[in-house]
Amino acid sequence: MELYNKLLEVSRLFRIEHEYLGYEVIQMGNVNRTYKVNFKRADGSPKSYLIQNVNTYAFQNAEGLMSNIDKVTEHIRGKKPGQIALHFHHTADRATYVLDGENFWRLTNYVPSVTYNTVKDMDIVRNAGIAFGDFQRSLADFDINDLVETIPDFHQTRRRYEQFCRAVEEDKAGRVAEAREEIDFIMSVKEQACRLTDMQLAGELPVRVTHNDTKINNVLFNPETNEPMVIVDLDTVMPGLVGHDFGDAIRFAANFVEEDCKEAEKAGLDLDVFRAFTEGFLSQTLQVMTEKEIETLPLSCFAIAVELASRFLADYLNGDRYFNIKYPEHNLVRTRCQLALAKDMLGKMDDMQKIICEFCEKTDK
Ligand code: GN1
Ligand code: MG
What we know:
Blueprint: H1 2-13, E1 19-26, E2 33-40, E3 46-55, H2 62-79, E4 98-100, E5 103-109, H3 122-138, H4 157-170, H5 180-188, H6 190-201, E6 208-210, E7 219-221, E8 228-231, E9 238-240, H7 242-253, H8 271-285, H9 291-295, H10 297-318, H11 330-346, H12 349-362
Antiparallel strand pairs: 1-2, 2-3, 3-5, 4-5, 6-9, 7-8
């Protein structure tokens, strides 16, 4: 009841005056909470919006975050007028968010669509690659200095290792003993996992505007045609490496299983999905990428998988403060699944490289 009333209160603050019918929980994301709120207009027709409760433990700069989203969506809209986009509603004071203790709220239009957590249809996978590649290309001329780092050092893998080591040392939740094997593996691959970050710091890879959370379920597809319509979850749009976006998409979409599968031994890299996503992504980005960026794409998949495993495990050891969990071992299960995938990727580096080279040869790069 409390949430029911809260969502009504938030809707009214964003000046939605229709008759309130109630809400549905949308399963989207591990950090924020998302609801579809339903209304009836005066003429009797239905109207829905999306309300999100943004986690300020993860995102501490609400203003900077919403300003990033405004600028980026405006830039994309300028290039693609008429394309479906998210519109954030304003309060009477022209704010795009409402602060409320530990959280902040925002409200957007609801886009009827389908999303996928796992896909085996290669046309859909290729379309997701095109969507994220197109996002990257549309923002290639956007000035990164106009963006706030919404989570500083988000994909700075060495920093993530420091945070991980601190969590192991502090052992706040008394869970280190049961995660010894995972901790040892993460530490054993540290140098390889951090190589991309080292190259970035050495200026060997260009810093671009990146999405930084390129899970395939952040692409909204047209339910009839399966064409990608819009990319959502722009909270982590920040300066970053193209490999972060590519690697994150692969570690999510090309895993044989979902990222929190309890049977970690079933996790691994599906090379068919890898190929389809790569073809879509590179069809949009190849012309703007440097040789080094292309060469390091397979490494970026491994780096992002290990980095995320270290984040899941650090959160588990800290007592689950960051990621939403459904049961006590959820973050440990996610860690194991991500590590199994990372191990499998290590054995498939050459296959990944070969698929990329084949595509480059086909397109003369
Ligand atoms: C979080 O909340 P969601 O699902 O969009 C996380 C990503 C992780 C992902 C793992 C801001 O994203 O970095 O890859 O979980 N986002 C943030 O599922 O930390
Ligand atoms: Mg996200």
